[in-house]
């Protein structure tokens, strides 16, 4: 059907679903009217001077400050999208740093898409990351998010029990994004694994935390192991993003 | 000596320490001149109409928007502080949600206090939380942060290895804060354990996530176990806060 999969039977019996951190609710707002048409369907022109990803990124950064502001069919620039592909799009201005923060946003975004009856949605997460053995300024397209042991899993504690979810992202979207890069040559682009950590400093081997008990040699040894496992960049949200998109039937990348 | 303990030998050999997320650096800014005097030493008057914590909280929320804005001796309102205690104070406007986000702020704050040669610093973390079997509007003073298995520990992955740190907070500061409440009677105040989770929704037993596979009964059973273990509120940062304060010789509460 293309609708977002919300897998929570409790929601059906709730009188109102309040999206706390978005300041929205099913009784106070008409979510289908507000957000049901948030869809950008257009094709990127191969002769476009600006690479599609630059436009996408630019659109995200230009969207206005509200938590759910994004391009609609009415205000989307002509030509936004991926070559040969229709893309549905909803931008969030910020989700904060780290898995706990993006998880809150994603749970509420997914419920918003569900309540708004959006269909065929692709979510693209764009952000900075630390490169690993690649040229500075490269764009890494994540095929799989891995944890700090380089495993493709997201562990979450639910009522004291550890649940484990897959963190593979949509291969087709990754390939389409890479294909876009072939039309342009102004920055390197690659598909690889992305390592996701809970800590910016010691979790990613930085030596300049307030506390650091490991040597520069141990740091390099660890990062070499990550590289050998296929990791080309590190950041702090991709595991939760990949897991939640996969579980809810969203194309995520 | 009262100085902040930064336990990282690498820092001494670095030409410059850049506090990335605070937009500050040891070469670009004179940190002792800018922040060395950030200290509020005053005593709370027992006859004060406004409870000390209200003032403290109010001061945090009123501080201007920069990342390191806080009260100094020059602009601090008379009377701020805890009864019978001198208190050093530095406020941050926001640290975002979750352990990864507060960890970044804490590492950089602790290095800032170190570079600025601040002494005898107490950090008080104020925020909202979900109550557990207590009156709405209560103020919970955390004696120990516990994880989702109700254990007083903070586990962090460093170069692929799991390190475990204690999460007990300063008992004296907790008692002093409680003593303040005895001077006022306009909200309930208690000392207890605080449960810290990585997830706002399922991690804290909420039924309104995008995904939820547990029943209301299982939720209540889990929260009852938390209550029996001494937990009276839940939030998302206290484990990292307690561990880092303890490791760096800061009085944290």
Please name the defining characteristics of this protein.
Nucleoside_phosphorylase_sf (chains A, B), Rossmann fold, 253 residues, homodimer, alpha/beta, globular, four-stranded mixed beta sheet
Could you walk me through the main structural features you see in this protein, from its secondary elements to its overall organization?
The structure is a homodimer of 253-residue chains. Helix content of chain A is 29%, strand content 19%. Chain A is globular. The first copy, chain A, has one domain (11-252): Rossmann fold (3-Layer(aba) Sandwich), CATH 3.40.50. In chain A, helix 4 packs parallel to helix 7. Chain A has a four-stranded mixed sheet. In chain A, strands 2-3 form a two-stranded antiparallel ribbon. A two-stranded parallel ribbon of chain A has the order 4-12. Chain A has helices at 9-13, 31-35, 52-62, 99-115, 171-182, 216-228, 238-247; strands spanning 7-8, 18-19, 24-25, 122-123, 130-131, 139-146, 153-158, 161-166, 189-196, 211-212, 231-235, 251-252. The first copy, chain A, has 253 residues and is α/β, with parallel strands linked by helices. The model of chain A is unreliable at 40-93 (pLDDT under 50). Chain A contains seven helices and twelve strands. At the A-B interface, strand 1, helix 1, helix 4, strand 7 and strand 10 of A face strand 1, helix 1, helix 4, strand 7 and strand 10 of B.
């Amino acid at each position: 059907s293309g609708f977002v999969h919300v897998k929570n039977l409790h929601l059906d019996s709730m009188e109102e679903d309040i999206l706390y951190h978005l300041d929205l609710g099913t009784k106070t707002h008409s979510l289908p009217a507000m957000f049901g048409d948030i869809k950008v369907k257009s094709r990127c022109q191969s002769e476009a001077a600006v690479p599609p990803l630059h436009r996408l990124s630019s659109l995200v950064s230009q969207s206005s400050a509200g938590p759910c502001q994004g391009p609609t069919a009415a205000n989307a620039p002509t030509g936004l999208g991926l070559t040969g592909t229709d893309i549905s799009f909803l931008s969030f201005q910020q989700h904060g740093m780290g898995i706990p923060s993006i998880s809150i946003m994603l749970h509420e975004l997914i419920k918003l898409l569900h309540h708004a009856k959006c269909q065929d949605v692709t979510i693209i997460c764009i952000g900075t990351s630390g490169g690993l053995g690649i040229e500075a300024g490269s764009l890494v397209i994540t095929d799989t998010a891995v944890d700090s042991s380089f495993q493709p899993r997201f562990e979450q504690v639910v009522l004291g029990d550890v649940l484990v979810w897959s963190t593979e992202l949509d291969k087709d979207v990754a390939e389409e994004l890479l294909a876009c890069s072939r039309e342009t040559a102004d920055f390197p682009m690659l598909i690889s694994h992305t390592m996701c950590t809970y800590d910016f400093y010691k979790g990613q081997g930085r030596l300049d935390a307030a506390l650091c008990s490991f040597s520069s040699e141990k740091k390099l040894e660890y990062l070499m192991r990550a590289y050998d496992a296929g990791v080309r960049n590190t950041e702090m949200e991709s595991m939760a993003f990949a897991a939640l998109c996969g579980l809810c039937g969203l194309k995520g990348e």
